[in-house]
Design goal:
52% helix, 15 helices, elongated, 333 residues, mainly alpha, 4 domains
Protein backbone atom coordinates (compact mmCIF):
# COMPACT_ATOMS: atom_id res chain seq x y z
CA UNK A 1 0.00 0.00 0.00
CA UNK A 2 1.40 3.35 -1.03
CA UNK A 3 1.96 5.98 1.61
CA UNK A 4 -0.38 8.94 1.51
CA UNK A 5 1.67 12.07 0.91
CA UNK A 6 0.64 15.51 2.15
CA UNK A 7 2.69 18.16 0.34
CA UNK A 8 1.50 20.85 2.76
CA UNK A 9 3.09 19.10 5.70
CA UNK A 10 6.73 19.61 6.80
CA UNK A 11 7.00 15.81 6.46
CA UNK A 12 5.17 14.01 3.63
CA UNK A 13 4.16 11.02 5.75
CA UNK A 14 4.49 9.73 9.31
CA UNK A 15 8.11 9.13 10.39
CA UNK A 16 9.38 10.51 7.08
CA UNK A 17 12.79 12.24 6.98
CA UNK A 18 12.66 15.94 7.92
CA UNK A 19 12.45 18.64 5.28
CA UNK A 20 15.89 20.10 4.62
CA UNK A 21 16.16 23.86 4.01
CA UNK A 22 17.84 24.77 0.73
CA UNK A 23 17.67 27.85 -1.43
CA UNK A 24 14.45 27.97 -3.43
CA UNK A 25 16.20 28.55 -6.73
CA UNK A 26 18.25 25.39 -6.17
CA UNK A 27 15.03 23.53 -5.42
CA UNK A 28 13.56 24.61 -8.75
CA UNK A 29 16.63 23.29 -10.56
CA UNK A 30 16.36 20.00 -8.66
CA UNK A 31 12.88 19.39 -10.00
CA UNK A 32 14.32 18.66 -13.44
CA UNK A 33 17.95 17.93 -12.64
CA UNK A 34 19.11 16.40 -9.39
CA UNK A 35 21.65 19.00 -8.31
CA UNK A 36 21.39 17.80 -4.69
CA UNK A 37 23.92 15.06 -5.37
CA UNK A 38 26.59 17.48 -6.48
CA UNK A 39 27.23 18.25 -2.83
CA UNK A 40 25.79 15.24 -1.05
CA UNK A 41 27.98 12.76 -2.91
CA UNK A 42 31.15 14.81 -2.53
CA UNK A 43 30.94 15.11 1.26
CA UNK A 44 30.93 11.89 3.29
CA UNK A 45 29.26 13.57 6.24
CA UNK A 46 26.12 14.35 4.21
CA UNK A 47 26.17 11.42 1.75
CA UNK A 48 22.86 9.49 1.51
CA UNK A 49 22.83 5.86 2.59
CA UNK A 50 23.35 3.24 -0.12
CA UNK A 51 19.67 2.33 -0.03
CA UNK A 52 18.87 5.62 -1.72
CA UNK A 53 20.61 4.46 -4.89
CA UNK A 54 19.09 0.98 -5.25
CA UNK A 55 16.36 0.37 -7.83
CA UNK A 56 13.84 -1.67 -5.89
CA UNK A 57 12.74 -3.42 -9.09
CA UNK A 58 16.14 -4.50 -10.43
CA UNK A 59 18.35 -4.24 -7.35
CA UNK A 60 20.81 -2.21 -9.40
CA UNK A 61 22.79 0.44 -7.51
CA UNK A 62 23.93 3.66 -9.17
CA UNK A 63 25.93 6.39 -7.49
CA UNK A 64 25.32 9.05 -10.11
CA UNK A 65 21.58 9.43 -9.72
CA UNK A 66 18.64 8.68 -7.48
CA UNK A 67 16.30 6.24 -9.18
CA UNK A 68 13.46 3.87 -8.41
CA UNK A 69 10.76 5.13 -6.07
CA UNK A 70 13.22 7.73 -4.78
CA UNK A 71 13.55 9.30 -8.21
CA UNK A 72 14.21 12.70 -6.71
CA UNK A 73 15.41 13.87 -3.28
CA UNK A 74 12.49 16.31 -3.24
CA UNK A 75 10.01 13.46 -2.93
CA UNK A 76 10.89 12.91 0.72
CA UNK A 77 13.13 15.68 1.90
CA UNK A 78 11.60 18.78 0.35
CA UNK A 79 7.82 18.39 0.24
CA UNK A 80 7.41 22.14 0.77
CA UNK A 81 9.65 23.02 -2.17
CA UNK A 82 6.73 24.41 -4.15
CA UNK A 83 6.38 27.40 -1.79
CA UNK A 84 5.90 30.43 -3.96
CA UNK A 85 8.18 33.44 -3.72
CA UNK A 86 5.14 35.53 -2.71
CA UNK A 87 5.48 33.89 0.71
CA UNK A 88 8.94 35.32 1.14
CA UNK A 89 9.12 37.79 3.99
CA UNK A 90 9.56 41.48 3.30
CA UNK A 91 13.18 41.14 4.43
CA UNK A 92 13.84 38.30 1.98
CA UNK A 93 12.38 39.93 -1.12
CA UNK A 94 15.14 41.39 -3.23
CA UNK A 95 17.81 39.92 -0.97
CA UNK A 96 20.57 37.77 -2.42
CA UNK A 97 21.40 36.39 1.02
CA UNK A 98 20.63 32.67 1.01
CA UNK A 99 20.26 32.58 4.82
CA UNK A 100 17.46 35.16 4.71
CA UNK A 101 15.76 33.73 1.63
CA UNK A 102 15.68 30.18 2.89
CA UNK A 103 14.89 30.69 6.57
CA UNK A 104 12.07 33.12 5.83
CA UNK A 105 9.97 30.35 4.24
CA UNK A 106 10.75 27.46 6.59
CA UNK A 107 7.68 25.99 8.25
CA UNK A 108 9.49 25.51 11.55
CA UNK A 109 8.91 28.82 13.36
CA UNK A 110 12.07 28.35 15.39
CA UNK A 111 14.01 28.74 12.14
CA UNK A 112 11.85 31.28 10.29
CA UNK A 113 11.00 33.74 13.10
CA UNK A 114 14.59 34.99 13.50
CA UNK A 115 14.41 36.53 10.00
CA UNK A 116 11.36 38.63 10.88
CA UNK A 117 12.87 39.63 14.22
CA UNK A 118 16.19 40.55 12.60
CA UNK A 119 14.43 42.67 9.94
CA UNK A 120 13.35 45.21 12.59
CA UNK A 121 16.67 45.24 14.44
CA UNK A 122 19.55 47.70 14.42
CA UNK A 123 21.66 44.98 12.82
CA UNK A 124 19.40 45.02 9.76
CA UNK A 125 19.44 48.83 9.81
CA UNK A 126 23.22 48.99 9.58
CA UNK A 127 23.50 46.11 7.08
CA UNK A 128 24.68 43.30 9.35
CA UNK A 129 23.10 40.07 8.12
CA UNK A 130 23.04 36.50 9.49
CA UNK A 131 26.61 35.73 8.43
CA UNK A 132 27.89 38.76 10.34
CA UNK A 133 27.18 36.87 13.57
CA UNK A 134 26.95 33.24 12.53
CA UNK A 135 29.56 33.10 9.77
CA UNK A 136 28.95 30.74 6.88
CA UNK A 137 28.62 31.70 3.23
CA UNK A 138 25.42 33.64 2.42
CA UNK A 139 26.09 33.22 -1.32
CA UNK A 140 26.22 29.44 -1.24
CA UNK A 141 22.80 27.89 -2.05
CA UNK A 142 23.72 24.46 -0.67
CA UNK A 143 24.08 22.84 2.72
CA UNK A 144 27.78 23.71 2.63
CA UNK A 145 26.84 27.29 3.48
CA UNK A 146 26.70 26.20 7.11
CA UNK A 147 29.77 24.00 7.13
CA UNK A 148 32.77 24.30 9.43
CA UNK A 149 34.90 25.07 6.38
CA UNK A 150 32.78 28.20 5.90
CA UNK A 151 33.34 29.15 9.56
CA UNK A 152 29.69 28.69 10.43
CA UNK A 153 28.83 29.17 14.11
CA UNK A 154 25.53 28.10 15.57
CA UNK A 155 23.93 29.95 18.47
CA UNK A 156 26.10 30.04 21.62
CA UNK A 157 25.56 26.97 23.79
CA UNK A 158 25.51 28.86 27.09
CA UNK A 159 25.68 32.32 28.70
CA UNK A 160 29.46 32.13 28.98
CA UNK A 161 29.84 31.83 25.22
CA UNK A 162 27.46 34.70 24.42
CA UNK A 163 29.92 37.45 25.42
CA UNK A 164 32.69 36.16 23.16
CA UNK A 165 30.14 35.53 20.38
CA UNK A 166 28.98 39.18 20.47
CA UNK A 167 32.52 40.32 21.21
CA UNK A 168 33.59 39.47 17.67
CA UNK A 169 32.29 42.94 16.79
CA UNK A 170 31.65 44.56 20.19
CA UNK A 171 35.02 43.70 21.66
CA UNK A 172 35.31 46.68 24.01
CA UNK A 173 31.85 46.13 25.46
CA UNK A 174 32.42 42.41 25.75
CA UNK A 175 35.72 42.89 27.56
CA UNK A 176 34.14 45.30 30.02
CA UNK A 177 31.17 43.04 30.60
CA UNK A 178 33.41 40.09 31.41
CA UNK A 179 34.75 42.03 34.42
CA UNK A 180 31.27 42.54 35.87
CA UNK A 181 29.32 40.73 38.57
CA UNK A 182 26.82 39.70 35.92
CA UNK A 183 29.55 37.78 34.13
CA UNK A 184 31.07 36.38 37.31
CA UNK A 185 27.79 34.96 38.54
CA UNK A 186 26.69 33.92 35.05
CA UNK A 187 23.40 35.55 35.95
CA UNK A 188 22.98 37.46 32.71
CA UNK A 189 24.41 37.64 29.21
CA UNK A 190 24.33 40.21 26.40
CA UNK A 191 21.03 38.88 25.05
CA UNK A 192 19.37 39.12 28.48
CA UNK A 193 19.25 42.91 28.01
CA UNK A 194 19.70 43.43 24.27
CA UNK A 195 17.89 40.41 22.87
CA UNK A 196 19.31 38.05 20.25
CA UNK A 197 17.66 38.80 16.90
CA UNK A 198 15.54 41.78 18.05
CA UNK A 199 18.54 43.95 18.94
CA UNK A 200 17.63 47.62 19.28
CA UNK A 201 19.80 50.72 19.47
CA UNK A 202 21.26 51.36 22.89
CA UNK A 203 18.83 53.43 24.93
CA UNK A 204 17.30 53.73 28.39
CA UNK A 205 14.44 51.48 27.23
CA UNK A 206 16.77 48.47 27.48
CA UNK A 207 16.82 48.81 31.28
CA UNK A 208 13.54 47.89 32.96
CA UNK A 209 12.07 46.61 36.19
CA UNK A 210 11.05 43.41 34.42
CA UNK A 211 14.62 42.61 33.40
CA UNK A 212 16.65 43.96 36.31
CA UNK A 213 14.17 43.39 39.12
CA UNK A 214 14.34 39.63 38.73
CA UNK A 215 17.69 39.39 40.53
CA UNK A 216 18.05 42.56 42.64
CA UNK A 217 16.34 45.80 43.63
CA UNK A 218 15.68 48.00 40.62
CA UNK A 219 17.16 51.09 42.32
CA UNK A 220 20.66 49.82 41.41
CA UNK A 221 19.81 49.67 37.72
CA UNK A 222 17.86 52.92 37.98
CA UNK A 223 20.96 54.68 39.26
CA UNK A 224 22.91 53.54 36.22
CA UNK A 225 20.22 54.56 33.75
CA UNK A 226 19.75 57.95 35.44
CA UNK A 227 23.44 58.74 34.93
CA UNK A 228 23.38 57.64 31.29
CA UNK A 229 20.07 59.34 30.48
CA UNK A 230 21.14 62.59 32.14
CA UNK A 231 24.33 62.76 30.08
CA UNK A 232 22.47 61.84 26.91
CA UNK A 233 19.93 64.62 27.47
CA UNK A 234 22.66 67.17 28.29
CA UNK A 235 24.62 66.46 25.11
CA UNK A 236 21.46 66.64 22.99
CA UNK A 237 20.62 70.00 24.60
CA UNK A 238 24.08 71.28 23.68
CA UNK A 239 23.54 70.12 20.09
CA UNK A 240 20.31 72.11 19.93
CA UNK A 241 22.04 75.17 21.39
CA UNK A 242 24.64 75.07 18.62
CA UNK A 243 21.81 75.67 16.13
CA UNK A 244 21.06 79.00 17.86
CA UNK A 245 24.50 80.41 17.03
CA UNK A 246 24.23 83.03 14.27
CA UNK A 247 26.86 85.04 12.49
CA UNK A 248 29.79 82.77 13.44
CA UNK A 249 31.23 79.52 12.04
CA UNK A 250 30.24 76.50 14.16
CA UNK A 251 32.43 73.72 12.69
CA UNK A 252 34.84 73.74 15.64
CA UNK A 253 32.08 73.49 18.25
CA UNK A 254 30.30 70.75 16.27
CA UNK A 255 33.53 68.71 16.30
CA UNK A 256 33.79 69.30 20.03
CA UNK A 257 30.26 67.97 20.59
CA UNK A 258 31.07 64.97 18.41
CA UNK A 259 34.09 64.27 20.64
CA UNK A 260 31.77 64.40 23.66
CA UNK A 261 29.50 61.79 22.08
CA UNK A 262 32.51 59.53 21.58
CA UNK A 263 33.52 60.01 25.21
CA UNK A 264 29.94 59.27 26.25
CA UNK A 265 30.25 55.91 24.48
CA UNK A 266 33.06 55.15 26.90
CA UNK A 267 30.65 55.79 29.78
CA UNK A 268 28.15 53.35 28.26
CA UNK A 269 30.94 50.84 27.78
CA UNK A 270 32.06 51.16 31.38
CA UNK A 271 28.47 50.76 32.55
CA UNK A 272 28.71 47.11 31.47
CA UNK A 273 31.15 46.56 34.33
CA UNK A 274 28.45 47.49 36.89
CA UNK A 275 31.15 49.55 38.63
CA UNK A 276 29.94 52.97 39.84
CA UNK A 277 33.47 54.18 40.56
CA UNK A 278 34.57 53.63 36.98
CA UNK A 279 31.38 55.26 35.72
CA UNK A 280 32.05 58.29 37.94
CA UNK A 281 35.55 58.69 36.45
CA UNK A 282 34.28 58.52 32.87
CA UNK A 283 31.24 60.69 33.63
CA UNK A 284 33.47 63.42 35.11
CA UNK A 285 35.50 63.45 31.89
CA UNK A 286 32.34 63.99 29.87
CA UNK A 287 31.15 66.72 32.24
CA UNK A 288 34.44 68.63 31.85
CA UNK A 289 34.24 68.49 28.05
CA UNK A 290 30.56 69.41 28.13
CA UNK A 291 31.15 72.42 30.38
CA UNK A 292 33.88 73.69 28.05
CA UNK A 293 31.66 73.25 25.01
CA UNK A 294 28.67 74.92 26.67
CA UNK A 295 30.79 77.91 27.68
CA UNK A 296 31.86 78.38 24.06
CA UNK A 297 28.29 77.91 22.83
CA UNK A 298 26.98 80.48 25.31
CA UNK A 299 29.75 82.92 24.35
CA UNK A 300 28.94 82.66 20.64
CA UNK A 301 25.19 82.94 21.23
CA UNK A 302 25.74 86.05 23.39
CA UNK A 303 28.06 87.60 20.79
CA UNK A 304 25.53 86.80 18.11
CA UNK A 305 22.79 88.55 20.07
CA UNK A 306 25.05 91.56 20.75
CA UNK A 307 25.95 91.74 17.08
CA UNK A 308 22.28 91.58 16.19
CA UNK A 309 21.44 94.39 18.64
CA UNK A 310 24.29 96.47 17.26
CA UNK A 311 23.04 95.82 13.75
CA UNK A 312 19.49 96.76 14.71
CA UNK A 313 20.86 99.94 16.36
CA UNK A 314 22.75 100.92 13.23
CA UNK A 315 19.73 100.26 11.06
CA UNK A 316 17.57 102.37 13.37
CA UNK A 317 20.18 105.18 13.27
CA UNK A 318 20.29 105.13 9.49
CA UNK A 319 16.50 105.22 9.33
CA UNK A 320 16.35 108.18 11.69
CA UNK A 321 19.00 110.03 9.66
CA UNK A 322 17.14 109.26 6.48
CA UNK A 323 13.90 110.62 7.95
CA UNK A 324 15.64 113.74 9.25
CA UNK A 325 17.21 114.33 5.84
CA UNK A 326 13.90 113.77 4.12
CA UNK A 327 11.95 116.24 6.26
CA UNK A 328 14.79 118.78 6.10
CA UNK A 329 14.64 118.67 2.33
CA UNK A 330 10.89 119.03 2.42
CA UNK A 331 11.14 122.09 4.64
CA UNK A 332 13.68 123.70 2.31
CA UNK A 333 11.35 123.16 -0.62
Amino acid sequence: MKKKIDLKSPRPYENAPPAIPHLLIDIEISKTKNSCLKCHLADKSIRPSSSHFINEHTGEEKQDQVIGTRYNCLQCHLPNASIKTSLLSKAAKGSNNTCIQCHSVLLDKRLSNPVALWASSVHAEVGNTCDGCHGGDPKDPTGRAMSKEKNFQAAPANKKEVASFCGKCHQGLSDRYMTSAHWGKRAQSCISCHGSHTIKRASSEIVSVEKCGKCHDYDVAEKFITILQSLDDSIKTSEEQVKLITGFPTEHIEKEVDTIWKRFRQVRMVSHTSDFKLMKIETDKVDILLESANNEIDRLITLGKERSLTGYGLIATFLILALVTYFSNKRLE
